[in-house]
Amino acid sequence: MIDLSQVLDQTKSIAKEAGAFIRKERQHFDLKKVEEKGLNDLVSYVDKEAEKIIVDKLSKVLPEAGFITEEGTREEENKNYTWIIDPLDGTTNFIHGIPVFCVSIGLMKDNEIVLGVVYEVNLHECFYALKGHGAFCNDTPIHVSAAPSLSQSLIATGFPYSAFAQIDEYLEIMKVLMQKSHGLRRLGSAAADLCYVACGRMDAYFEYNLNSYDVAAGSLIVQEAGGKVTDFKKGDDFIFGREIIAGNKPVHEELWKELDQIWNK
Question: What does the record give as EC number (predicted)?
């Protein structure tokens, strides 16, 4: 019988260890060491080495688990348990010295996320959740905001950097939200966006063209903090469906209605 609370404690320690490595490397990072995986899709040795640290240690925590990893260190999806890892969510921020980037580790059991850890490297904030046990930041319980409506909310989003086929619709949505909310913020890390929704700093977040490792951990943390998470059709395909809306329940509902009129028409 796997004790997920013990696995969680070990995962938190591993995320912090990887975060310490990332923080140290940022102090003398050389822009010449940046590579491009695709259009505006950047990676560095820091991402790769951090992922190796995480995969190596998680392999010992739960030897029977498979892996989905951003940098391809190890890929084994057909397992009862699967780790979903982004070693450095917010790579572009990291490269440019903007202090918003995270280590994100989710654990999936039978296609359901059951554990999530996001370590925000710069603020030393460790967000985490076990399914059914609430959400926490540095051992303090967290909860989504009490904002009653979209008009009283602050919304986080992300901008596409390669998938531009629906950019006009996306800009139309942002135009609407600028007029119907307290404003929009683009932090540059989906993991941070989700955790900021979970602890009430943001009231909702939406984005498309995402990968499972961007949202696996953070989506569970939002849900365990009392929030609602769906895809753009209000369904549950937000881990692998490449689109997500997360927020407290009243703001999520209003945000989805505005988005649905434009995106899904």
Answer: 3.1.3.25
Query: Selecting from 3.90.226.10, 1.10.150.650, 3.40.50.620, 3.30.540.10, what CATH number does the domain 4-142 have?
Result: 3.30.540.10
Are both 4-142 and 150-263 of the same fold?
A: no
Tell me the average pLDDT of the chain.
93
| pLDDT score recorded for residue 40 | 46
Q: Where are the domains of the chain?
A: 4-142, 150-263
Rg (CA), the chain: 17
pLDDT in tens, 173-197: 999 999 999 999 999 999 999 999 9
Assign domain 150-263 one CATH number from 3.40.190.80, 3.40.50.300, 3.30.70.1230, 2.60.120.10.
3.40.190.80
Q: Detail the DSSP E strand segments found in 70-111.
A: 81-89, 102-109
d(CA 15, CA 192): 14
pLDDT in tens, 113-124: 999 999 999 999
Residue 141 above 70 pLDDT?
Answer: yes
Picking from 164, 142, 146, the residue whose alpha carbon sits closest to that of residue 40 is 164
* pTM to 2 decimal places: 0.94
pLDDT digits (tens, 9 = 90+) for 3-16: 999 999 999 999 99
Residues of the chain by 3-state class (helix, strand, coil), percent to 5: 40, 25, 35
What size, in residues, is the chain? Answer: 265
